[in-house]
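Below is the data:
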Amino acid sequence: MSVDGPEQATGPDGAHAGSRGGTGDAIDVRPIAASDRAAWAELYRGYREFYRVAPSEEAVDTVWSWLQDPAHLTRGLLAVRNGRPIGLAHFRTFARPLSASHGIFLDDLFTDPAARGSGAATALLERLAEIARDEGATVVRWITAESNERARALYDRVSTRTPWVTYDLGPADAPAR
């Protein structure tokens, strides 16, 4: 996940949940709405580009359809400053059988490069912590690239790095007929 990098360690300015910054520059965090498609798509394409994932309008359309489907697990937030979306977060609930609880998994976090350092990533993470509290989740969890030093500097300040190692297993080949 790409974020906006080092920020002030202070919390929200008290205007309301998910708000950061001074008057006029406050960052509001809110759910993604149907009217946000163009701005969200620009951010999502930037996120894919950051991780050197090939452009795909099919992926844009698919993820957007998930975000607009209340029955789909994937949900989204936008960080908005002065009426303009500058950051996104995609997240979902996951079961934690070992602790007989559930958590929030943050799949994607991205801030427009022009808005890095604005507090958008911190505001998104703070809002996710509030959602976890409100929904009775026991953790907000995510992964990031080891090389994403700017993001990791923020994550090291606001969360706990775990000792767990992540693995990916591809699907099995189709059975022979």
